[in-house]
Amino acid sequence: MTWNALLSFVLLCLLLNITPGPDTFLILRYALRDVRAGIAAGIGSSMGYLLWAAAIGLGLAALMEQSATAYRIVKIAGGIYLLYLGVVALIRLRRAGGLAKDVMAVERRSLFPALGAGFMSTSLNPKVGLFFIAVVPQFLPAGHAHFMSTMLLGAISALCAALYLVALSLVANRAVAWLRRPKVTKALERTSAGVLAAFGIATLASATQ
Asked: DSSP label at 109?
């Protein structure tokens, strides 16, 4: 791969990352309460890119391109998971009296839930899968091992995603620290949870069309 091709691929990855989607709001939800959880969710999300790269390298993701049923199944699974995350977040806020600091105290015990949520969100995001199906093969060099080349591009895309999402977590947490008002924090928590649920509903609705 030439340097120009590599730069073009990196720019496409960054464009995919900065486009608002479920991962963005998931990282914001965690970062608003604890920057470490936001970073963990961002790293988990970037690990999902490696899973998609492996699927491309093994030829499994081609099923989504050839089978409308397989694509619909991934969309339904992703929609259900996003809806679950949003609803659970809203329920926890309600039980905690709408105070983000109480929810944070409960979930700060372990970063694995945030890491797993980020990983599952990307792994079940069909748009990321389509990006790998449509874009990655165009950058695979001829005459090289297909799987290793695909994993290298997957690692590059994962690194781009990690850098962007970690930066997003830091900025979001700093913003909340600057606006440390209970009403503002509660409103942001509810908004991010509601957007996750809305993404889930929209994904499920599009999967039935």
From this structure: T
